[in-house]
Amino acid sequence: MPGALEVLSRKQGVIVGDDVMALFKYAREHKFAIPAINVTSSSTVVASLEAARDAKSPIILQVSQGGAAYFAGKGVSNTNQFASINGAIAAAHYIRAIAPAYGIPVVLHTDHCAKKLLPWLDGMLDEDEKYFQAHGEPLFSSHMIDLSEEEKDENIAITKKYLERAAPMKQWLEMEIGITGGEEDGVDNTGVDNSALYTQPEDIYDVYAALSSVSPYFSIAAGFGNVHGVYKPGNVKLHPELLGSHQAYTKEQIKGTEDKPLFLVFHGGSGSSKEEFLTAISHGVVKVNLDTDLQFAYLQGIRDYMLTKKDYIMKQVGNPEGDDKPNKKYFDPRVWVREGEKTMSARVKEALSDFNTANQL
Length: 361
Ligand SMILES: [Zn+2]
Description:
The protein has twelve helices and 14 strands. The protein is α/β, with parallel strands linked by helices. Strands 1-4-3-2-12-11-9-6-5 form a nine-stranded parallel β-sheet, sandwiched between helices. Helix 3 (65-72) crosses helix 4 and helix 10 packs antiparallel against helix 12. The site of zinc ion has 6 residues, from loops.
């Protein structure tokens, strides 16, 4: 069986346009989903790339609005999204520069952009267009716009406007409809009734009809009981089988021949079971967002290091082996930050294996 690399014209580094489409089509057909890892630093970028390289997998790296500001540095003002725009651009250039060294295709994406954050997306699109002028492709492979808090008609109308701007660059746009519970990036849906957490097939088709008239390069994050952020098991019932009804309904409406006309995205997956992921993937989920689990995984290595090496990091010289023993090799950040990279990388590998992404290259 030919691997996913066969369908790509650029086989390593950041991919764009038709390659992104080809990769998602291949994933949908071969029933795997690509984990989208929220990165906030060069350290979390390389931890993710290392996992994907070792697992022979494509990977999606994404920055959130807050993560992008962190990339710029917490000391930089975020008035008018200044830090978030510049941090996202810096992350993009860094990832574009280093990704080819890992020999795998990488989708460079930006995460949730709610209505009040649209100036962030505008700033990134300005940079995409500049980059497109110079290089014939956008800086970012794709962006996400999240107007799921707005009324459906407004959500679709504004999303369509942004797709019109992205379309000439063949840039991918991910959108969200319905409510994903929990709290993330300032959107708090923890108080929403459970029955409101499921998007209806008619809504999905309305999105498809409006957006497909502009460009084929889009995907939909639909609510099927997902919860963003911290997940309390048993609090919410996931119904990934609903995604199958979305596909069937849209297929019927467009009298299509393809069983899965939609590209779907799984948000709020932290804590979900492997079976829930696989059911969602079998219904056309090609991207799964992973943030919370990886934040914890990154912490684990550093936490354990600090606890087990406590007596070697309290002063520059002097440890249980002698008062004159130097501790430089214990407090060098390359040593202890690396421990976080190892545990994060191991967790990314687990996701790559769970979502059938491993060995697809
Ligand atoms: Zn979401």
